[in-house]
């Protein structure tokens, strides 16, 4: 009995140790000391990052995304050949190259995969295009089946991010100040709306977050230092809110970057490059409107990307210029953040759990 009890206790201890570890992959720019995509262990109990390794050597993996089953990672590379690359996740959490395809535009800056895991979309800042790729069962990529070019004779497009939502594909174009909507028809996407709402001035829509039910979209504007809140209607979308991401007393330059909803969708987070902060908003889950409740320092410089951990208890911020990742705990009742610690990582620009 004593031996059986000890073995059960050992098994429980091993389970707990395993359960509180999660792999964090870090996309980087490789112009300095960085060599590619890194992997760290994240302790979901303490928020501590440790055991940094180079998962794979690759050029400028500035944005990375998982397949839904987490067996594959897709990266866009702003290298000599602008491309999307597929990698296999090995048992030891390193990565193995599978194949790559052209991004069909210069400066690919974002990649997303649909929930079925059979399509990826790449946005190119330099080219102003968004390309859709089919994914094979082995994780490899086919050549792009569609490429949408948003450039006109009068306006330069800057496609900055795209997301699938059921049969919709949304593309945020910073240059055209638009959030395009495409609809899936017979395995091809067709344009439904050149801009789901009218965006006044030059706000520069960059990234966006979609509520789980698809009823609300929150767009963070790089130039406007603001978040535009949008609600679905019977015949399209309408704007319901527009909020600054900055402190009232901040007067310096700023470029917003990333945006995420909390898992329970009661809070919204956005990053400010310049003020170097995370703006925290309380969200009305019924009306979709938001109210800013905190601006907290990122304890670094130039927060290009950030993420919430799988437990929803922590926020991790990638500070590109100061080359560190800052970790914050989330107050589950108020949504506010508290800085815990940071770790040095060369030129981090994308965080992926």
Overview of the structural elements:
- The chain is mostly beta strands and 353 residues long.
- The chain has a domain at 58-195: YVTN repeat-like/Quinoprotein amine dehydrogenase (Methylamine Dehydrogenase, Chain H, 7 Propeller), CATH 2.130.10.
- 5% of the residues lie in helices and 56% in strands.
- It has 1 helix and 28 strands.
- The strands form 7 sheets. The chain has a 4-stranded antiparallel beta sheet with strand order 3-2-1-28. Strands 4-5-6-7 form a 4-stranded antiparallel beta sheet, with no helix packed on it.
- β24 (303-308) and β25 form a beta hairpin.
- It is globular and about 50 Å long.
- The N and C termini lie far apart (41 Å).
- Residues 1-21 form the signal peptide.
- Belongs to the cycloisomerase 2 family.
- Keywords: Carbohydrate metabolism, Glucose metabolism, Signal.
List keywords for this structure.
four-stranded antiparallel beta sheet, mainly beta, Methylamine Dehydrogenase, Chain H, 353 residues, 28 strands, 5% helix
pLDDT < 50 runs, ≥5 residues: 5-18
Largest sheet: 4 strands, antiparallel
- The succession of helices and strands, N to C, reads HEEEEEEEEEEEEEEEEEEEEEEEEEEEE
Average pLDDT number: 95
Q: How big a fraction of the residues is strand?
A: over 45%
CATH class of the domain at 58-195, named: Mainly Beta
Indicate the CATH topology of the domain at 58-195.
Methylamine Dehydrogenase, Chain H
Structural class given helices, strands, pairing? mainly beta
- Total beta strands: 28
Q: Write down the overall geometry.
A: globular
By DSSP (H or I, 4+ residues per run), the number of helices equals 1
**CATH architecture descriptor of the domain at 58-195:** 7 Propeller
Question: What percent of residues adopt helix (DSSP H or I)?
Answer: under 10%
CA-CA gap between termini: 41 Å
Spatial order of strands in the largest sheet? 3-2-1-28
Radius of gyration: 20 Å
Q: How would you name the CATH homologous superfamily of the domain at 58-195? A: YVTN repeat-like/Quinoprotein amine dehydrogenase
């Amino acid at each position: 009995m004593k031996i059986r009890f000890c073995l059960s206790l050992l098994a429980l201890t091993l389970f707990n140790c395993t359960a509180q570890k999660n792999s964090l992959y870090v996309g980087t720019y490789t112009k300095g000391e960085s060599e590619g995509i890194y992997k760290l262990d994240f302790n979901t109990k303490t928020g501590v990052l440790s055991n940094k390794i180079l998962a794979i050597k690759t050029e400028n993996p500035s944005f990375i995304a998982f397949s839904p089953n987490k067996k594959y990672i897709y990266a866009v590379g702003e290298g000599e050949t602008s491309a999307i690359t597929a990698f296999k996740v090995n048992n030891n959490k390193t990565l193995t190259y599978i194949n790559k395809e052209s991004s069909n535009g210069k400066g690919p800056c974002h990649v997303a995969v649909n929930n079925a895991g059979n399509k990826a979309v790449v946005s190119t800042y330099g080219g102003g295009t968004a390309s859709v790729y089919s994914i094979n069962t082995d994780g490899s990529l086919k050549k792009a089946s569609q490429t949408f070019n948003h450039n006109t004779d009068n306006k330069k497009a800057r496609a900055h991010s795209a997301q699938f939502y059921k049969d919709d594909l949304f593309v945020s174009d910073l240059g055209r100040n638009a959030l395009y909507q495409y609809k899936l028809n017979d395995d091809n996407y067709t344009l439904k709306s050149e801009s789901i709402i009218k965006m006044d001035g030059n706000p520069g829509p960059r990234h966006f977050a979609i509520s789980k039910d698809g009823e609300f979209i929150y767009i963070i504007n790089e130039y406007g230092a603001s978040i535009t809140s949008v609600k679905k209607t019977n015949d399209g979308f309408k704007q319901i809110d527009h909020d600054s991401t900055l402190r009232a007393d901040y007067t310096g330059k700023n470029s917003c970057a990333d945006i995420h909803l909390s898992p329970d969708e009661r809070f919204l987070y956005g990053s400010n490059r310049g003020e170097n902060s995370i703006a925290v908003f309380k969200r009305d889950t019924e009306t979709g409107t938001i109210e800013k409740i905190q601006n907290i320092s990122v304890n670094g410089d130039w927060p290009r990307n950030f993420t919430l951990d799988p437990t929803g208890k922590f926020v991790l911020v990638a500070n590109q210029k100061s080359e560190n990742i800052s970790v914050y705990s989330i107050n589950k009742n108020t949504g506010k953040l508290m800085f815990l610690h940071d770790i040095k990582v060369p030129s981090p620009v994308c965080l992926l759990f």
